[in-house]
Design goal:
The complex is a heterodimer of chains A (about 180) and B (about 180). With about 180 residues, chain A is mainly α. Chain A is about 75% helix and about 0% strand. Chain A is built from nine helices and no strands. Chain B has about 180 residues and is mostly helical.
Chain lengths: ~180, ~180
């Protein structure tokens, strides 16, 4: 104890030690346990006097609970020191993965879509491919232009009247046979 | 540094990633400080504090953040509640780890017993001291805290601790004088 404090003389310590070694009393284990939320409220000074007295009775009799209270009070004083970056990064990654897992596990329409997701993606890619092909083909003239070129050639040779040069050549060829 | 005041607790419970990231930034220093103390008290390397703290975060978001949902802002501040919960989780983590690594024959029976072995039988006759007086004596004599430290823990001023100590001593003297 701090030497400046006017408490804690040897005689007083001896009195306390004598009390601890004194006659038996009802077992302290019979005291009701203290929940974490209750201890936190006591540490913040937020309990009613009766509830605070109950926590303090347990603290006086339960070294483990007193250790917890002292650890927490000490840690809160040290909390100004930043935590390692790798802890923050790893802890922040927890919810991203958790949310994704829950989304997959969700029922209803989203689950149905999740099952068909791969098929829908393939269909979308195939559809986009077809649109690109069709657009390119249309810009190049499409079937109509190709058919029109073919029709022109056939019509030129089939339906156009033969001029005199051509007919004369054919007549000559026929005479020779 | 991130603050608990900036956290939208409802959005945090709804699983919003951005809110969780802010919560982690604010909570990590507190939880890591608790983990450091717990590993030191259990004789474990201080480097393990990060793993212990990480396990606390895992528990906070397990089962759809069931543990976080149990927080009641009307009873305690988020920082204090987190520190208490983190300590319980950290002690539990180290206890499980020790049991996993040690052969069962090597574990003392007291370590696996379910009996409430932490409770000390303080021989204070009922009604002799108030709960506060008993706790003040315990802090000053068994834990060798000074008056200022005890006052900080109890959220009272140093003079109140001295006064409580004085009244407790009067009662003890009276008790033993009568008994003798």
């Amino acid at each position: 104890m701090n030497e400046k404090d006017p408490v804690g003389s040897e005689a007083q310590k001896a009195l306390w030690a004598r009390l601890k070694a004194g006659a038996a009393m009802p077992p302290a284990a019979s005291l009701p346990p203290v929940a974490d939320a209750e201890l936190a409220a006591w540490l913040d000074g937020g309990l009613e006097p009766q509830a605070a007295a109950r926590v303090e009775a347990r603290l006086a009799a339960d070294p483990a609970l007193l250790d917890a209270a002292l650890d927490v009070a000490g840690a809160l004083r040290e909390a100004g020191e930043p935590a390692p970056d790798r802890l923050v990064t790893r802890a922040q990654a927890l919810v991203g993965f958790e949310a994704e897992r829950q989304q997959r596990a969700a029922g209803g329409l989203s689950r149905w879509f999740a099952g068909w997701r791969r098929s829908l993606e393939l269909a979308a890619v195939a559809g986009a491919f077809l649109v690109v092909c069709a657009t390119g083909f249309s810009l190049g003239g499409g079937f109509q232009e190709a058919y029109a070129d073919d029709s022109f050639d056939v019509a030129y040779y089939v339906t156009s009247p033969l001029d005199s040069g051509v007919t004369g050549f054919l007549v000559e060829q026929g005479d020779q046979q | 540094m991130a603050s608990f005041d900036d956290i939208d607790f409802r959005a945090l419970l709804a699983g919003k990633k951005r809110e969780w990231d802010r919560f982690v930034a604010a909570a990590a220093p507190v939880i890591h400080a608790v983990a450091r103390r717990v590993v030191a008290a259990h004789g474990v390397a201080v480097e393990e504090a990060v793993d212990v703290a990480q396990d606390v975060f895992v528990r906070l978001c397990a089962d759809d953040r069931r543990l976080l949902r149990s927080y009641d802002p009307a009873r305690a501040s988020l920082g204090t509640w987190l520190a208490v919960v983190a300590r319980s989780c950290a002690v539990d983590h180290l206890r499980r780890r020790r049991q996993q690594h040690a052969p069962l024959d090597d574990v003392p029976e007291s370590a696996v017993s379910v009996e409430d072995r932490h409770v000390e039988r303080l021989n204070i006759p009922p009604g002799l001291l108030t709960e506060r007086q008993a706790l003040v004596l315990k802090l000053l004599y068994d834990r060798e805290m000074d008056v200022a430290e005890a006052a900080a823990l109890l959220k009272v001023d140093a003079q109140t601790v001295r006064s409580t100590h004085h009244k407790a001593m009067l009662r003890l003297r009276e008790h033993f004088r009568v008994e003798a």
